[in-house]
From TrEMBL:
InterPro entries associated with the record: NUDIX_hydrolase-like_dom_sf, NUDIX_hydrolase_dom, NudJ
Domain Nudix hydrolase: 4-137
GO molecular function, one term: thiamine diphosphate phosphatase activity
EC code(s) of this entry: 3.6.1.-
Record's keyword terms, sorted: Hydrolase, Magnesium
Cofactor(s) demanded: Mg(2+)
Keyword Hydrolase tagged: yes
Similarity remark: Belongs to the Nudix hydrolase family. NudJ subfamily.
Protein name, UniProt field: Phosphatase NudJ
Listed Pfam families: NUDIX
Keyword Cell membrane belongs to the record: no
Amino acid sequence: MRIRWKPSVTVAAIIERDGRYLLVEEHTPEGLRLNNPAGHLDPGEGPVQACVREVLEETAYRFTPTALLGVYLSRFQRPATGEDITYLRLAFTGTLGEAEPGRALDEGIVRTLWLTLEEVRASRARHRSPLVLRCIEDHAAGRRLPLEAIYTDASVWAAPG
C-alpha cells in the first residue's frame, strides 16, 4: 500500500508598519528563532481564519488580512532527530489592529519585535525557515493577490458525519 504524502499546511502574516516588520522570537528544538507570526491550519478553519487566530495567539494583536502574498513550499530536516517535514505556507498581509490587553502570548513565544528589512536580512541565521525572509521580500516587492483567490468550501466547517 502506498502512503500518501501530506505536507504540513501553515499560515503566516507579513505585517509592516513604518518600514518595520513584525516578527516573533520563539523557542524551537533548534533554539531561539525568529519567525513571522505563523502556525498550522487547524481542522474546521479556513486559511484566512487560521492566520487571524495565529496572529492573535502569537502577538496579542488583532489582524485583518487584506491580500494573499503567495503560496510557498519548503522542506525542513530537523538536525537533532532527522525528522523530515515539508511545509506548505499561505502568507497574508493586512492591517494590524489593536492589542488585546492582558492577553498572554502563545506558549514558546518569547516576545514580538519590529525589524527593518535590512535587520531581517542581517538576522537570517536566526530565522526559523528560509520563508521568513522570502515572504518579507515578496511583501517589500509589492506582491499581492486577492483574498478571493482562496476558496474554502462550507464542508470544512461541517461537523464530521
